Amino acid sequence: MEYLIGIDVGTTGTKTILIDKNGKLIASALEEYPLSTPKPKWAEQDPIDWWRATVNSISKVIKDSKVKADDIKGLGLSGQMHGLVLIDKDHEVLRPAILWCDVRTTEQCLYITETVGRDLLVESTCNPALEGFTAPKLIWVRDNEPDIYDKIYKMMLPKDYVRFRLTGEIASEMSDAAGTILFDVRNRKWSQEVLDKLGVSMDIMPPCYESIDVCGKITPKVAEMTGLKVGTPVVGGGADNACTAVGNGIVVTGRTSASIGTSGTMLTPTDTPEVDPSLRAHTFCHCVPNKWYIMGVMLQAGGAFRWFRDTLAEKEVEQAKQAGIDPYEILTKSASQADAGCEGLIFLPYLIGERTPHGDANAKGVFFGLTLRHKKEHIIRAVMEGVTYGMRDSLEIIKALGLNTGQIRATGGGARSTFWRQMQADIYKSEVVTINIAEGPAFGAAILAGVGANVYPSIEEATDQLVEITSTTQPIEANIKVYDEYFGIYRSLYPALKPEFDKVSETVAKFS
Fold first, then answer.
1. Is 143 in the active site?
2. Whether the predicted pLDDT of 307 surpasses 80
3. Which of 176, 240, 393, 426 is labelled catalytic?
């Protein structure tokens, strides 16, 4: 039997899975690591932590599976997008990686927009300059840490640093590079024009490949550390959202991924690079050669629910511990006791700002409409509804571009709950399905490895073979009417509150 490994270098940990060629999960391992927030708006990690987690998780899946190294035909990488890793000429990391959720770079975003020009950003990068993206982070280092900037040999993205440690090869691939705002998304190459306008040398950019291209092979040292075979091919892999789409079979038009994990994404593949004229949604290269996707992103989706669990649900967490169940089971059961719409209680899930549709690092979380009638079950349900309204924001943008959203496939934590799946169907006004794959971006990375190693003829054929529909949820007409009314109110709250969001951010900064 032929086997494949997929690795996802995530924000909270690195997950490694080993599957057989039929898509059966043989073994998995998750190794967690810390996230540092040394200042307000900052979020950083040590790339060495990713590397240790990768080595440990690979070793564990090989040991647990008892699969022979000779039978592992390829390895694929997925990873958190937009993170900035800088190495010097000796290949040493120069500073902690600045992550996707770091929003210190508002000043640099304004500089990029003014220097490059909005028209060129749209034409070349297909995206606005936002705090979460990579280019503003690089300019921030140049502005604030010039001694480090001067030592840069190569800029990398998180999974690409792990690839370098696995293979000794410096490389990136198109789906991840597309999120840097330094990449010509339409033509699938680094944008010389954007780099020149910003005064950034092309020399620090890594070579860029398609996701299924073999970009390196496992070194003898890594083979000894992990149990892999020397020379095992490592493919380009992909950004976490793109790999999740591959793992869910979202590789052809007429399918949409609704993923509620820590962040939330609504993603639809396209055959040509389609761009939202208002730049509220993002256009990136897909892992599938010569395909793209348009995507809306919420910075905190399941993360908002986790915030509620960790901050306001101590009793439910203890109950779950005593019962040996997941605390979210208790929380969602409680939420189901409240009616759709929560009697007017609406939650804005902008806990670390928001990307789609507002692109605003100053946006804040809000509970709106509280009354004495509201109980805890209303508050829990309002959090879930607020997240789902945010997902619908992205869906509406995609539909307004005339794209065929087709079948909506729910993934992530929001797909595991029957209650939340029904809520999604009602708010999206669409059938929502789930699939037989639950391993997320690591599974997509493994498929890419299989195509690169000639285990599968193509990504499309692989997903047709491996991905199956397991449940279907139809919207409830009565709930559609309720949610349509409240969604309109939800959308009106941000513009009404934006001036106050800006003021409170200024005030916090003044007294910090």
1. no
2. yes
3. 240
